[in-house]
Amino acid sequence: MTTSTAARQPRLKLKKNTGDQLFSLALIAPTMLITIVFIIVPVIDSVIKSFTEYRIKNIISGAPGVWNNFENYIKLFQSGKLGPAVVHTLLFVVGVVLAQFILGMALAVILNSGMKGARLIRSLMMMPWVVPTIISALVWMWIFQAQYGLLKYVVGVITGGAVTDFAMLNDPNTALLGVAIAALWKQVPLTTLLLLSGLQNVPDDMLEAATIDGASRAKRFFAIVIPYMKSVISIVVSMAIIENFKQFPLIWTMTGGGPSESTTTLAVLSYREAFVSNNLGSGAAVTTIWMLLMIVVVAVYRKLFQAEDMN
């Protein structure tokens, strides 16, 4: 009897493990299916179309695109549109992500200091993040409006009416900055809450020990707090890079890529090539370059972050 029971145990264990694996597979199957159907397949299809002559008429007629090798990419490079779009995209991403992290960390530290009304402030902070992107864009367009915008009024009051022409979105030198400010207003709240959650997980006993040892507030922050938050910081910054790389509705609504192409990022250029110029193949080529650039930037950031962590 004992021998028979012992012989059955491995089989039962094997069946249980198999059942757990099947159950786990059943749980992740919907996510895998959605990822394949709505992300992987469209990405592959877009890359293939970037090597074809594919226009709106092909969709209407149902005719497949004509393979043209690298002609879409060559025309993009020769047109002179791609270079400025890459520069604008990188400027926007780097500037917004840096400012977003600094502001988010500063606000997280303030909210973590035990100030009165911190919970209410956290709740109010999420309002910009909850507001749809298009509504945010319209609000900031009104603030930056050249004739009766709120910013112009404030600048006029501060300068005593000395500045009468203050149109941020109409000036090629400041338009990208105006869009970046609107992006920060919407994205900083979530960054703040994520960093705040990381701050609250830093061990208090280590901070107290460092305080007893005479460590300054700045030294405690950089020697204890930041190392404990590295995993959170890595995720938050990676999310911010991806979010700002694919930022389109805000830019298109506020400036349409202007003035003088000063806010034309890869997202805007892709839309123009595909749906304004009716050249879906060229638009897919821009999208492919856009995706590869984003992958490279995220990979470089992760590599630098890991190298810093090892040091």
Please describe what this structure looks like.
This protein is mostly helical and 311 residues long. The chain has 2 domains: 1-49; 71-310, Orthogonal Bundle (MetI-like fold). The chain is built from 15 helices and 2 strands. It has helices spanning 2-49, 56-61, 71-79, 82-111, 118-125, 127-130, 133-143, 150-158, 175-199, 204-212, 217-228, 230-245, 249-254, 266-276, 280-310; strands at residues 52-53, 66-67. A two-stranded antiparallel sheet has the order 1-2. α7 packs across α9 (175-199). The model has no long low-confidence stretch (mean pLDDT 87).
Offer a quick outline of the entry.
The protein has helices at residues 2-49, 56-61, 71-79, 82-111, 118-125, 127-130, 133-143, 150-158, 175-199, 204-212, 217-228, 230-245, 249-254, 266-276, 280-310; strands spanning 52-53, 66-67. The chain is mainly alpha-helical.
